[in-house]
Design goal:
The chain has a single domain, classed as 2-Layer Sandwich (60s Ribosomal Protein L30, Chain: A). Strands 1-6-4-5 form a four-stranded mixed sheet. Strands 2-3 form a two-stranded antiparallel ribbon. The chain is built from four helices and six strands, in the order βββααβαββα. It is of the alpha+beta class. Helices cover 26% and strands 27% of the residues. Helix 1 crosses helix 3.
Length: 152
């Protein structure tokens, strides 16, 4: 596996609950203003900061997308039910980030054969790393039997 792109975004995507709104004329759903703002700014940073990585990007090869999130807070200060961690579903911020990366680097997200997400806490530096790594073709597209043999 070879990292081809690593970019730091000093901001976080909105939750999936705040990505779409109903079209004012009843024509389905559209991106909310928060989601559009995230996507535009994230694409700008990815294309500007990751421009060296674009040289190593290839079409029609498998990739692993790693998203590492740093939230201002992950633990509750007080909880009436004794919950240690703040109720926040990590998967709610993944789809918009994945779609944004795909559009920014012009590699369809169908080429992401692996995805990894991490949730961390940094009140001083909320944001996220986007890391795209090229995978060996021998490690993707396995049959169940081949997978089971490699992962007993």
């Amino acid at each position: 596996m070879r990292t081809v792109l690593k970019v730091w975004l000093p901001f976080l995507p909105p939750s999936s609950n705040k990505i779409y709104i109903r079209h004012p004329k009843g024509m389905g759903k559209i991106l909310s203003s928060k989601a559009r703002k995230f996507k535009i700014e994230a694409m700008r940073v990815i294309q500007q900061e990751g421009r060296v990585g674009f040289i190593r990007l290839r079409k029609n090869v498998p990739y692993k997308l790693t998203l590492v999130f740093f939230f201002p807070r992950v633990e509750n200060k007080t909880s009436k039910v004794g919950a240690r961690y703040k109720k926040f579903d990590l998967t709610n911020v993944i789809k918009l980030a994945e779609d944004t990366v795909s559009e920014a680097v012009d590699v369809d997200d169908s080429h992401n054969f692996r995805a990894e997400q991490e949730k961390h806490c940094d009140p001083e530096n909320p944001g996220m790393y986007i890391i795209l790594s090229r995978l060996s073709r021998r490690k993707v597209g396995l049959t169940k039997e081949e997978y089971d043999a490699r992962h007993p």
